[in-house]
């Protein structure tokens, strides 16, 4: 597996797992603090996108390093 494919797969899986974790946390522990339910859902979606964006930044910088230690040494 080449480096770009590995980083893309890791990025997709990190985004999916983070979105599921945020949804579960929001459903289990979320409270309606905003004025309407639509505003509360919008807040959770925006927060989820920000968290996923931060995690994807880490994947972008750490993904090639992880690839090097897993697949890079085999070549």
What's the helix and strand layout?
Layout: H1 3-29, H2 37-70
Helix pairs in contact: 1-2
Textual characterization of the structure:
This protein has 75 residues and is mainly α. It contains 2 helices and no strands. The mean pLDDT is 88.
Would you summarize the structure shown here?
The protein is mainly α and 75 residues long. It has helices at residues 3-29, 37-70. Helix 1 (3-29) runs antiparallel to helix 2 (37-70).
Feature tags:
75 residues, mainly alpha, 81% helix, 0% strand
Shape: elongated
Task: Give the radius of gyration.
Answer: 16 Å
Percentage of residues in strands? under 5%
Would you tell me the overall average pLDDT? 88
Spans of at least 5 consecutive residues whose pLDDT stays below 50 are none
Q: Find the count of extended strands (DSSP E, 2+ residues).
A: 0
Q: Supply the number of helical segments.
A: 2
Q: Which sheet architecture does the biggest sheet show?
A: none
- The chain-level structural class is mainly alpha
Helix amount: over 70%
């Amino acid at each position: 597996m080449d480096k770009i494919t590995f980083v893309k797969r890791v990025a997709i899986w990190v985004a999916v797992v983070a979105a599921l974790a945020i949804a579960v946390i929001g459903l289990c522990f979320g409270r309606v603090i905003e004025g309407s339910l639509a505003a509360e859902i919008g807040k959770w979606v925006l927060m989820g996108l920000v968290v996923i964006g931060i995690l994807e930044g880490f994947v972008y910088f750490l993904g090639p390093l992880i690839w090097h230690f897993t697949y890079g040494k085999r070549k």
